[in-house]
Amino acid sequence: YHAQPSQGTEQEKMDYALNNKRRVIRLVLQWAALYGDLLQEDEAAMAFLEEFYVSVSDDTRMIAALKEQLPELEKIVKQISEEPKASQKKHKVLLQLFNASDDRAQKRQPIRGSDEVLFKVYCIDQTYTTIRVPVSSSVKEVISAVADKLGSGEGLIIVKMSSGG
């Protein structure tokens, strides 16, 4: 972010610094937009975003051209740092199963019907909540648990997303 060329006129050095700073800001904005929900759960990522915002704010005093990106960065930092809240409106939700196989240290054991699964429930208003249900739960029981947690069962849709990446 603070790369400076060793050669060139002062104007060339300023242009170089401005272009580098803009690229880094754009990268951080894209990263935060793609992984915002995961970043909320990572204290180090949140601390980085807040420190980065302060650094960019400080830089805008010396490089006025960075001011155009500051509101977007501020919006993303505030949006990610807000606590997720369940809304009382109609919800379209996405359930994400936390994959226990991602934890390499965890020993493999057979799944029992009494085991519980943790779901992340994403709402259309970009909030989420979590529910815990037994592995043997039916779709109706999962929907019921989501409705209880959100306070409303109207307009609920279950969507399963998977990705090879």
TrEMBL record:
Signal peptide: none
InterPro entries assigned: RA_dom, Ras-like_Gua-exchang_fac_N, Ras_GEF_dom_sf, Ubiquitin-like_domsf
PROSITE patterns (UniProt xref): RA, RASGEF_NTER
Domain named N-terminal Ras-GEF: residues: 1-81
UniProt record, GO biological process: signal transduction
Coiled-coil spans in chain: none
GO MF annotations in UniProt: guanyl-nucleotide exchange factor activity
Name of the protein: RPGF4 factor
Gene: Rapgef4_1
